[in-house]
Amino acid sequence: MSHFKPEHFLNRAGRRQARAGAGPGPTADVLKHLDDSLNAQWRRYRKRLKRCQKHFSEDAVHASRVATRRLLATIEMLGAFIPEHDLRKARRTLKHHLDIFDQLRDTQVQLVYVGRMAGTFPDAHAFYDWLQGRQARFTRETRKAVKHIRIKRLGRCLATFEKELRRQRKKITGEQAFVVVRRAINQAFARVAQLCRQVRAGDTKTIHRTRIAFKRFRYMVEALAPLLPAVTPDHRRAMRGYQCMMGDIQDMEVLLAALDKFVQKEGVDIRSARRLKKELVRWRQLLIEIYLNAAGRLRRFWPPPGLGQPTQKRKNKAHEPLSASTRRRR
How far is residue 105's CA from residue 128's CA, in Å, rounded to a whole number? Predict the structure, then answer.
């Protein structure tokens, strides 16, 4: 691993702040927290993956996806101390693991949407049956793919990260480490704000790009949340809800693409398909309007009200319930 110098991230003001002791108190060790978090998330990831491989079910899939995303969150935060090219392999491996579940999860979400429509739109029944067939096929394929996931190389990557974090703890103070991570989160948030300003109602790709950037920012904040009292469970729920609004739009885009594929493959009545598509497009537009009306809430998320300096870790309740949304997003 090449030696990375996080002190290079410290601008002059940040270095003055660190020397003045304006950072965390002696009980707050950002690097130790990240080291501990990496260990805990890695154990949880392996446990959830093993369960999914042995007892494949919707709940097991969800738990494995959540554990993977939580491990990714910690790795994103490590980017403040470890070079990007060293993190890339671990990040790519975990994203590949998430990709394995994508088609199955997308189809499960689509079944919920179309099931809601079936009572009002009889034309939706055939589409629903087709989606159920896809779900059965994707379940078989995903179960097989999950069994072939191997994680030894990933484990070696994470062991290298742990060594580097411990090396960094000997080189920089807790105050300096906090300045580094604070600046990394500032940069991630600035990227989200930039993309949010570019959002256009007629181009859902701009919303999707904003969602991806926001997800990265949110993961970074949540990885450090136990040290930041201002990042409360309510604050984290609000961030999840904000992300879900954008995710629901993406879900609708994927559903519309699935409907087009259904029409092409099954040769259904064109008029029936048009009625169904018109309703889905109307639904998508409603979701876009909901998000655009709430987009300005972004400024509430960073810095959170009352953000001071980090403190000792506080115990968090395991996985607070999400705000209402079709997809269970973490």
Answer: 15
